[in-house]
Amino acid sequence: MTEVNVHLSAQALDEIFKPAAYLGNIQAQIDAVLQAAQGQLAVQIQGVKDAPVIIFSNSLGTDHGMWQAQVDALAQHYQIITYDTRGHGASDVIANSTLQNFADDVIDILDTWHIEKAHFCGISMGGITALTLAIEYPERFYSITVANSAAKIGTAEAWTTRADSVEQHGLAEIVKTTHTRWFSEHFDYAHDVLAQKTIQSLAVTPAQGYANACRALADADVRDQLNQIQIPTLIIAGQYDPVTTVQDAEFMHQSIPTSQLEILAASHLSNIEQPQVFNQALSKFIQNI
């Protein structure tokens, strides 16, 4: 792992008297910035004293705010950590993003706050990060939740083409049509506050950060390693998801002996389209571990 220094907001400094203290004593949200060798990583922490930790990992082109419905529902019972994946939100764009980079960032978060083990929930790009963590660092996690993801998302050619296009033309065209991939026709995304905020987060994502993540996804493929996963795994799929399909979820479920599968009436961002059902599935899964 990289060496990490922690820089906290004034609010956080008022509440923490030891920079690397375990954050079980924190009730209100704090904002932290990890200064690692790969650049700054924006982290948000809130929740209940001494409660189990759940880390949430965002999808491509979004930021930590996409998890607001889960934070609102679970922060009364758990310690919640969200963060902006490299090149997204307030986290630095780095020269080369890889799936291993994404996984190592999570371990840096755990190490910085002396968190021995946690539950991890990732969606889409965050979901394949979850799989990587379960393969590489199983001793650090009680469970993983893999939402709207796959062991291999799309094709390398498609991701490389998208990365090249975004570098040349920016994200404007992708933003215009993203609702057709993220949300089903049954969901009134235009009048959902969180859905609109999440689309806006795509609009302000650094183009180079997005392109770098696309190239990381082009190379990401853990299909042959799924049977190595031995920790409890919840797989959540969207019935109407055109990006990571129910078939992708079923393949993971069949390949991971410790997994269970939930299919929600949603498209690609099921945590936003069906937040109550998503939260219920996640809560029940974690409570039974």
UniProtKB/TrEMBL annotation:
Q: Which Gene3D superfamilies does UniProt cross-reference here?
A: alpha/beta hydrolase, Fumarase/aspartase (C-terminal domain)
Which top-rank group of organisms is this from?
Answer: Eukaryota
Gene Ontology molecular functions: 3-oxoadipate enol-lactonase activity
Q: Does the keyword Amino-acid biosynthesis apply?
A: no
Q: Name one GO cellular component term.
A: membrane
The biological processes this protein is annotated with in GO are: beta-ketoadipate pathway
- Keywords linked to the UniProt accession: Hydrolase
Coiled-coil regions listed: none
> Which parts of the sequence belong to the AB hydrolase-1 domain?
52-274
Matching PANTHER family? AB HYDROLASE SUPERFAMILY PROTEIN YCLE, MONOACYLGLYCEROL LIPASE
- List the protein's name: AB hydrolase-1 domain-containing protein
Gene source species: Oppiella nova
